[in-house]
Write a structure and sequence with these properties.
Layout lengths: L24 H8 L2 E3 L5 E3 L8 E6 L6 H10 L4 H7 L1 E7 L6 H8 L4 E4 L4 H5 L21 H14 L14 E5 L5 E6 L9 H7 L17
Parallel strand pairs: 3-4, 4-5
Antiparallel strand pairs: 1-2, 3-6, 6-7
Length: 223
């Protein structure tokens, strides 16, 4: 369901929260040559994800992270029709083994594109951080669990999985990239901590996609 019109985005490209500059062209070329893996373990050049059309690429922390899970649960609510109308791809990239993609998609209800970068090569090239670099309290509109409850759930999922596996580097932070077609970068944000991801409606608006009503409250429309 489309949400109410979002306020206009007035920030310059490359000047959003946590985003100091566009990636240098050499870094972008290096990232473009990296390979990501799909749910069946097939290698795909990173550049192929945005060569022909604009793409929203969201790099997440490990798949066991409760903030990552709840963020992707809301990404799952973005209608495919909204993306198709704007000719935009929505892509999540994790840093676990590809074996975890299908189960994570099933857990979150996410049906858009998902790949993994197990060696974190693209994360490193684009300068994504490790560790909680900023302790300032940030409230995410997409994270419903508090830190204690969310952490307990993450540990329980790790312990009850097929193997005790953190499904990625627990210290790795993610980020958001809007890129394409070709090497044109429209937006880059590097997360400072686990709650510093960009609100989904912000990246949708920046990419020219309709925004989504993420609340469970029914909308009242005046006629």
């Amino acid at each position: 369901m489309a949400g109410p019109p979002a306020p206009p985005v007035t920030q310059q490209v490359g000047r959003a929260r946590g985003c100091g500059r566009r990636p240098e062209q050499e870094r972008l070329r290096e990232a473009a040559r990296c390979l990501v893996l799909d749910a069946d373990g097939r290698s795909v050049p990173f550049q192929a994800l945005y060569a022909e059309q604009k793409a929203i690429v969201l790099f997440v922390r490990n798949f066991l992270c409760y903030t990552c899970k709840e963020y992707v649960e809301d990404l799952a609510k973005v209608p495919k029709a909204f993306l198709q109308e704007s000719n935009v791809r929505l892509i999540v990239i994790g840093q676990s083994s590809y074996h975890h993609i299908k189960s994570f998609c099933s857990l979150t209800g996410y049906t858009h594109e998902m790949y993994v970068d197990p060696q974190r090569e693209i994360y490193k090239v684009l300068g994504m951080k490790r560790g909680e670099g900023n302790k300032v309290s940030v409230r995410s509109p997409h994270v419903k669990s508090n830190t204690l409850l969310g952490s307990i759930r993450s540990i329980w999922r790790a312990m009850t999985g097929p193997a005790f596996d953190f499904q990625g580097d627990p210290a790795q932070q993610g980020g958001a990239l809007i890129i394409g077609p070709g090497n044109e970068v429209h937006f880059l944000h590097l997360d400072k901590n686990r709650l510093d991801h960009v609100p989904i409606n912000t990246v949708l608006q920046l990419a020219g996609v309709k925004t989504v009503n993420f609340s469970n409250k029914p909308q009242i429309i005046d006629i």
